[in-house]
């Protein structure tokens, strides 16, 4: 961190402007404010800039900076004059500055809201996206300081800089005068500028991971002279995998004359290696890692895999050691897997990288695998390797990342890589925690449109050492939001593998209709029951009897697949007397050939530990002739109908086109138990449904009666009273009324006479309620009296409540006009600092709260979201005429949800809303209680410039 020394500086050094960014080529740089201490760095930087770049910056030959120039470019007040630098290794590679100007272009102070902006990028770093990243950061700084518009003058020949401005996505105006192009653009983020920013983020982060997973050269640092040890094991694994690049063994303890270790060139330091090193695997104790990182940075290493332990997992001292490691690596433009990592694997023929502690290279395949835990990573690799032959033929792993402490490279980064990786069709992730749920759900939604994403989510905390906001949402709520984003959420490692292998081998089902056939009536019925339990629509099982031949299975499966009322088939098979290896092979071939004759529908086989059949299915898949050539990039994965290129404007185009429904059949997926097969199928059905709906997203309705400006003025006035407050009843009603939400008045009744007066104002019949905290919203405790038709009934009810629960000052009774009878529900909205704004819905009452029967959607809620929200709770049948009751007005309820969503989306100062109870009648809804909390809005990481998690 830099500290200014100029007493004329008007503001203290703004350390929150410091950030690490990923550049276009995948390297990193540090962005920070320029201070008076940077004079020598600035002069050195300028000396390395070409004369042409200097000419473009100053519109004239400008070979060197004068002392006056250096003073001007290093002395800033951080308000009207601001300079930022991008640095690598502590040295400047680019600068940007703005100067606030008035209407005539002269220097000015606030309230002037325009500034001139200018860039200078070292020639060696041009084309890396440095200027685009600096523009995002200087624009965010300017908005913070009240500047709303930038102006820039550029020579027409400086096409690169013109392109930086034009491609940024801001609303802009361009003019040409006196041989200079003048660009003016507003700094308020637009849909296009956010889309451009996110597309650049995806490309940069994907390339940063690609540099780690596809290196041209690898150095293993910490290789022992004798077999054994972590470093020597990794070196052996790289050699045995057949790594196609250059390998180097490094250990400062090597004797001077040692040239090779097992045929691999040996060196005492990375500095001694002749040629570039793309990836360094660091297998030295934690206390020696800083020295190694320095050597790697000076040699130009692009990325590190740090296997050493003793970091954040070991306590406060280790946490500080981890933060220092990340800062040190990023200062040299390097990214880190780890520390405490298990390693990385890439099975591609052109790479063959096993930079991990896994002694065997996994089978090549189409599954991308991410695990934060090394132990879980081992278990996943083992299961995929063990089941790769029996369940999925040759299906295996494309790439594997075990991130350990996840200090730098996270699941979000790897997801960016897999999104457009043509070698990966299915993504499996074990996440102990989600450090940035808002970003993860955004990336998951986009990835899920291109390929399935299956996740086991732990209930852990954010990575130790990360300066990220922790979510306050319950684990179940985060899980629900992940499902909304298209994530296939499973609970166990077994389910993760089961679902992933099905999706990698079989097409997606068109619906929930399932045919069941087999040679065991009992197993067929068990499968039928499991289908019902998972929400599928099974037909009655077809029992082929134990005497069924392979031809019988072939005929029955062909007929089931040809049936238009069938979307998927589950085949159950048990061993029969006298059946042996030949029978298994014959049955497997019969099932495979039937599936090939009628492709496009998933086929699952429940073989109840009949290992011979599983192996035979694999063999049948390997030896069968292909019905048609597999399209490039499909790899036989889950085949999706055509989708829009992006779910968000400006996202990169979807790189892999999926095949239509009619695709060459693959060997049926085999499972040892009916419940596992059915659960995997159910997840595939839900994912396919989400994918179809995502292709046509809903809309956020516009309501003519919403007074957004009036609500903003009311909120601004209320916030002047304090930074965080629950506003009063009258203010709550006024604010909600601005958004067309009418709240029934509830008048206080401190005495029975006051209750009578209130009833006269409201009109009979009325309700009398106790609003004490222990009785509020608890009608089951008897603190409510309904349908009081006159004064006598009201006074009697008042006396009863006082006798049962105490004096009025404890009861806090209120009188409210009776609403039409209906179903009591609750609507909530909350802004979580990590996940963003969330709308929740459920039925009111203790039973629903006890069961956690609430549904959740991210804001903004669309019309389709609202419809799904109402129907996704387990008690939803009560809204639609359960057991002969009258259906209630769910369209009115959905409109209420949409209005609440608009309120919190339009006004982030509204950090919490609770409407309870909301009575949904046969016609209309009645909001009987409401509370609203206001506070300054939490910072929106997704709206600011691109940054890596802070340390």
Mean pLDDT: 86
What is the CA-atom radius of gyration, in angstroms? 32 Å
- Largest sheet properties: 8 strands, mixed
Outline the low-pLDDT stretches.
1-9, 389-394, 623-664
Q: Report strand %.
A: 15-25%
Number of β-strand runs? 39
Q: How would you describe the oligomerization state of the chains in this entry?
A: single chain
**Distance from first to last alpha carbon:** 12 Å
**Strands of the biggest beta sheet: in what spatial order?**
1-2-3-4-5-6-8-7
Could you explain the architecture of this structure?
With 951 residues, this protein is of the alpha/beta class. It has 27 helices and 39 strands. It has an eight-stranded mixed beta sheet with strand order 1-2-3-4-5-6-8-7, sandwiched between helices. A seven-stranded mixed beta sheet has the order 11-12-10-9-13-14-15, sandwiched between helices.
In short:
The chain has 951 residues and is an alpha/beta fold.
